[in-house]
């Protein structure tokens, strides 16, 4: 088209807005790349470490981290060579949880399962690769379980994770396998064929077992939670020392866990 026929204002404004939107999106993606460098195992990172993880130039990384620190998304420790995720993210995360129907509706049911089992109960949602624990209820201190507080539960070796993963599409399961099945104990499933076989077994019996696969001496039973469309979007599990949860108790315990998982599903709209 002849440039002289174009509107001198509107196209330029549209192009300018398009470029602005693209730049904003790129900036947001860079910010996410920085924040996602942190994990439960890597809670504090230096500028150089974040540069290595993101591949960003040092100047770009420093500028991004300065902005994130200014708004409270990052904190810098006293030595000034390490950064941590900031409390602002924790505040926002709590708001998300409070507004999450699953978290709100499940709390009394999680507490009920804790009382009935006398063990720790974990409620987790699926983020595509791992199970994110959004609520945990522990028994009284004198019956404290061996499990430690976790934010992310591996889906290939925890009962709550396997209970969710078993009902995901094949492509999702393959994605988990391709990402690598990390070894934790001698009982951990670390090969694709073995995991696929486990998924089939879980679907047949309706629940998942973790018999020391994630932590030695810890035994867990997990069941899937379905949304109003019948899709498995979360899971719930009971966890305790193997000397408290015998294998002979698993079948009866699984019925209790499945019952509570179904109660949560009903409260968020799923009616089996």
What topology does this entry show?
Layout: H1 10-35, H2 47-54, H3 58-70, E1 74-76, E2 83-85, H4 87-99, H5 101-117, E3 120-126, E4 130-137, E5 152-154, H6 159-165, H7 170-179, H8 192-205, E6 208-211, E7 218-226, E8 232-241, H9 250-267
Antiparallel strand pairs: 1-2, 3-4, 3-8, 4-5, 6-7, 7-8
Overview of the molecule:
The chain has 272 residues and is of the alpha+beta class. It has nine helices and eight strands. The protein has helices spanning 10-35, 47-54, 58-70, 87-99, 101-117, 159-165, 170-179, 192-205, 250-267, and strands at residues 74-76, 83-85, 120-126, 130-137, 152-154, 208-211, 218-226, 232-241. The strands form two sheets. A six-stranded antiparallel beta sheet has the order 5-4-3-8-7-6, with helices on both faces. Helix 2 packs across helix 3 (58-70). The longest helix has 26 residues, at 10-35. The termini are far apart.
Distance between the termini: 60 Å
- What would you report as the Rg, rounded to the nearest angstrom? 23 Å
Lateral arrangement of strands in the main beta sheet: 5-4-3-8-7-6
Which percent bin holds the helix content?
A: 40-55%
Taken from the alpha-carbon principal axes, the silhouette is: elongated
The biggest beta sheet reads: 6 strands, antiparallel
As residue ranges, the low-confidence spans are 1-16, 143-150
Tell me how many strands there are.
Answer: 8
Beta-strand percentage? 15-25%
Keywords:
46% helix; disordered N terminus; 9 helices; 8 strands; alpha+beta; 272 residues
